[in-house]
Amino acid sequence: MARYIAALHQGTLHTSCMIFNHSGRLVSVSQKEHRQIYLQPDRVEHNPLEIWERAQATIRVALSKIDARPGDIAAVGITNQRETTVVWNSRTGRPYYNAIVWQDTRPMSINAEMISLGGQDIFRSKTGLPLTTYFSGLKIKWIMDQVPGVRADAERGEALFGTIDSWLIWWLTGGPNGGSHVTDVTNASRTLLMNLHTLDWDPEILTALGIPRAMLPRIVPSSDPRTWGTTLVDGPFGDAIPVCGDLGDQQAPLVGQACFRPGEAKNTYGIACFMLLNTGTRLIPSKSGLLTTVAYQIQGQPAVYALEGSIATTGALIQWLRDNLGIIRRASEVEDLARSVEDNGGIYIVPAFTGLFAPYWRSDARGVIAGLTHSINKGHLARAALEAIAYQTREVLDAMKQDSGMEIRSLKVDGEMIYNELLMQFQADILGVPVVRPEVSETASLGAAYVAGLATQFWDYGSLDDPFEDLNANWHVDKTWYPRMSDETRSRLYTYWLKAVQRTFGWRE
User: Fold this and answer.
1) In the chain, where the domains are located
2) Among 281, 362, 381, which Cα is nearest to 115's?
3) Pairing relation of β-strands 159-162 and 86-89?
4) Please, what is the average pLDDT of the chain?
5) Which SS3 state, helix, strand or coil, does residue 389 take?
6) DSSP string covering 339-363, please?
7) Whole-angstrom Cα distance, residue 317 to residue 15?
8) Which of 16, 136, 199, 245 could form a Cys-Cys staple with 31, CB 3.0–4.6 A?
9) Is it the case that residue 312 has pLDDT exceeding 90?
10) Comparing C-alpha atoms, which of 181, 245, 246 is closest to residue 216?
């Protein structure tokens, strides 16, 4: 009998393979970084073949740590950086071009042209998304327009598009020799090409962008017992294991955090920040600058939707303090430096390095430090950087409450920064609600494991009253931070933050 579920997590900076037992505990992990290829400050690429090589290496190491044998792994789940775009040849498996990463803004001229024709919300009623360089659709068009031969091959069905989940699943299940070309509804919902109502590629949008349907993967549920193929016996798993779970790397923590009820929300603190609010089977169009997206879908069940607030620069701001300013040597030092002062000294950092995402969607914005005086030192900079993460989260939470009409009573948190005690306490203070950290912090990989495990009955999909009984039983609180700030102080600090944000607008022509 299988003892474990494997999850392959392909993120912006690294790839990891994590193996979980039935209690949702992590029993083995291996992780490897890949190169960040910066052609210009706003042009970021990854080498897809390097990512596939790193994925294979992490799988082998993770399996070796538990001495896994054939039959030990019940299923494989995937979670991935979502909007990063790959186009490759179906016969050779060779990419036509490096993967264009989600932060990359090179399709800006395409974006401007489309906005001039129909406005930023031209596709929002169907996709839940505004027109922006963030999403995959415009990146696909850029590759087809700029890379010779791609468009002709795409029209013949030889050029395949995928976000990183599709790329990895295709290779895991055979690659050029019959690999499965699929993506799940959560990743498809981030392409600007999928209709949220039909859960299928929208023909009018494909025509508007000139994207052949033949190059797109088949859209499948996030958890699918029919599987999309099995891993190869001579591949990195060394066994034929069903690949049957797939989630974007921000929907995955929602599942890993057991946010299965409408009104439950999570925030992931990484290079960027992503907050998702479960809205159930109710699709809520946002009027407050949020994204409407698919949270997950279990095969045979209706899709569950979410409102999402994407914040472009959070953990990357701490890296900037380290790498560009040199005021810390390691990211972990930022908390001690921030504690060296009593408050932010009146300064606010708005890290609009490549513009602002939710709730503004301003690509013309650029970062500012507002309120500088002669008394400001590096401790104030560190504290203002941490506070900037919490303020941006507050903006998204306020927008979610306005759009959904739901009262969000607590915020579940995950990601690399949740062990920064100063940040988490300030987050609770500026939100005015408790902030809750789970015992298992690897929630993205756990979410991918969960949807694969549900597909193979490693975990039971329970009764209609509590279909996620097994998974809810695995979730436990590690620590909760409660608000300690007065309403007057919270309001005053937040008002100054909003003034600082206004100073970022219109900088780039």
Assistant:
1) 4-248
2) 362
3) antiparallel
4) 94
5) helix
6) HTSSS-TT-EEE--BTBB-TTT-BT
7) 22
8) 16
9) no
10) 181
Contacts with 463 (C-beta within 8 Å, 6 or more apart), sequence order: 469
CATH number (1.10.260.40, 3.40.1260.10, 3.30.420.40, 3.30.70.20) of 4-248 reads: 3.30.420.40
- Using a cut of 0.90, tell me whether the model's pTM lies above it: yes
Helix, strand counts (H, E) of the chain? 16, 23
* DSSP 8-state symbol, 478: E
Hey, what are 193's tokens? 């090409």
Residue with structure tokens 């042009």? 43
Q: What is the pLDDT of residues 167-210, one digit of tens each?
A: 999 999 999 999 999 999 999 999 999 999 999 999 999 999 99
The amino acid at 173: T
Can you say whether the dihedral through the CA atoms of 440, 441, 447, 453 is positive or negative? negative
Residue where the block lists tokens 């507050």? 394
Residue 285 tokens read as 């169009």
Q: What is the CA radius of gyration of the chain?
A: 22
Q: Are 483 and 254 in contact (CB under 8 A)?
A: no
User: What digits encode the pLDDT tens for the residues 94-120?
Assistant: 999 999 999 898 999 999 999 998 998
Report CA dihedral (413, 310, 393, 360) to the nearest 10 degrees: -170
> 187 vs 94, 172, 215, 267, 396, CA distance in Å?
22, 18, 16, 18, 21
The three-state secondary structure class of 80 is strand
Tokens 């060296």 identify what position?
340
Q: Which two tokens stand for residue 403?
A: 């759009």
